[in-house]
Task: structure prediction
Amino acid sequence: MNNNLRNLFNNSWIEIALRWILGITFIYASYYKIMSPTDFAKVVYGYNLFPEVLISPIAIILPLVELISGLSLLLGIYPRSAALIINGLLLAFIFILTINIIRGHEFDCGCFSTKKAGSPKMMVARDVIYLVMGLQIFLFNGVRKGCFIRLDRKT
Amino acid sequence: MEWNKIIKEIIILLGVSIISAITVNFFSPSGIALVGQWDEPPGVIASKAISDVFSGELEIKHVRIAKQIYDSGEALFVDARSLEDFKNGHIKGSESLPLGKFDDLIEAFEKKYSTDTFIVTYCSERSCNDSHTLEQRLFDRGYVNVSIFIDGYQGWKSEGYPIE
Result:
C-alpha cells in the first residue's frame, strides 16, 4: 500500500464520516423492513434462493441486525465488529444479487423499500462501494472519534 | 488484531439483534409467524402476519374449477389489481375494483351489485394477497358469497382462458 492510500485509510476524519454514512444508511435500510415484515418476507421469497423454513426467520432477524450494527457504527460502540458484520452482510448481498443476475431471475431488491429501484448491476456496484467504506472502518488503526466505548484504543 | 475480542463483540451484537428482533416481531401489530406458507402448490404464499387475512377455505385452488364457475355464468369475477393492470388485460367480463381505491369505488359497486351476488376475487398470481384482502373488505360490506381465485390473472391467462 503506498503512503497516500495508507494515510487515507488511517485518517480519523474519514473514518468517522464513513462510519456515520454507513451507519445511517443501514439504519434507514432497516426501517421499512421492520415496519412491514410481510412485504420484506415476500422480497426474501422472491430471491428464490432460501429454503422455506428460513424465509420468515431471515425477514424477522436481518432488519434488526442491520439496525443494531448501524446504530453501533453511528454511536461508536464496538465499531470494528459492527463494520465486520456489515461487511459480511454486504458480501452476502453482493453474492445473492450476482447469482440472480447471472441466472437471469427477475427479483425485487427490497434493499431500501419495496418499490423497485435501479438496475441490479447498479445495486451490486453500490454494495461494493459500501464494502470499501466498511473495510476502511474495519482496518482503521488510529484513535476513533466520537466513540462511546473506545475498546479498540491503543493504550 | 485481537480476534478473541472481535468474536466476543460480534456475539454480543448479534445476540442483541436476535433478541430484539424476536421481541419486536412478537409485540409489533405487523409481526409475522416464524414459519410462513412459502410453498406455492398448496396455496397462496403468505407470511401469516398477525394482521394477515388468510381465508383458506374460501380459496379456489384449481384454475379448472374457476373456469367451471366462470362458464356457469353465476359468478361475477372481480379484479383486485390496479386499474392500469386491469386495462392491460383481465379475465373477460370481470369488474375492476382496485384494492387501493376500494373506499372510493365501493359505493358505486354496491349500487350495481347486490350483496347476495356470487363474487370471485382475483389478483395477479399466487404470490399476491390482494384478492384475499378484497374478499375480507367485501365481506365487511355485507357480501357474504365471495370466493378467491388464487391463481389470478396469470394462472388464467396461461391456461388460454378468455381474457380481454
